[in-house]
Amino acid sequence: MTPFASGQFAVYYRVSTARQGASGLGLDAQRAAVAQYVAAVAGEVVAEFEEVESGKKSDQARPKLARALAECKKTGARLLVAKLDRLARNVHFVSGLMRSKVGFVACDLPEASDLTIHVMASFAEHEAKRIGERTRDALAAAKKRGKILGKTGPANLKRNLEERKATADSFAERMRREVRGMQAEGKTVAAMVSELNQKGITTARGGQWQSVQLGRVIARLDAADLARSGAVRGSW
């Protein structure tokens, strides 16, 4: 896979729930990331496909993805996704996709080789499993303490997710000046990651930067900018 190579792309967007699909939650950030990448490589979008489907399901359960792959084979375009985990969190599925000879690019890892993407998919699959295990362990521990689970469960989960999103959005805004400045200089994601680490600027958790983490910050900034522009247009 050639980093930042121009060309034609068939774009695949995916959200995990019908509520996200109806509200645009998640889609706006994906569209912003895709638009930024396509503009950076002077590429062309030949087709777009949007799907509401759990990433845990196989490719057979994702008809829009099948249509996107068919479009790639027909036109010679590459499959473009905003984030690798929008494509799949199943390493076997990603491996099968690579064997299909359809080239694909993830905006959060545009410089990655097929090997890198395979490794990242493995990590994504592992993390998805760990999240499920931690959730089950936490619920079991709460139940053992006598906590009544049920109606309060979804509310607590929603509140926790909202708090995590607010924290991540706040951190992205604190990084805005630094990130936008490097983008204005035309630096690649890899170069930006290297510069942040050299300057000693840490991630939200105090660690070293990687392409995935920076991609998430950029996507949040793009989504915030898109929301602001929509609000301004709505006030006219």
Please tell me about this protein's structure.
The protein has 236 residues and is α/β, with parallel strands linked by helices. The chain folds into 2 domains: 8-116, 3-Layer(aba) Sandwich (Rossmann fold); 174-234. 61% of the residues lie in helices and 10% in strands. It contains 10 helices and 4 strands, in the order βααβαβααβααααα. The chain has helices at residues 18-23, 27-40, 63-75, 84-87, 91-99, 114-144, 152-174, 176-184, 189-198, 211-234; strands at 8-15, 44-52, 78-81, 104-106. α2 crosses α10 (211-234) and α5 (91-99) runs antiparallel to α6. The termini are far apart.
Give a brief rundown of this model.
This protein is α/β, with parallel strands linked by helices and 236 residues long. The chain has 10 helices and 4 strands. It is 61% helix and 10% strand.
List its salient traits.
single chain; 236 residues; alpha/beta; Rossmann fold; 4-stranded parallel sheet; 10 helices; disordered N terminus
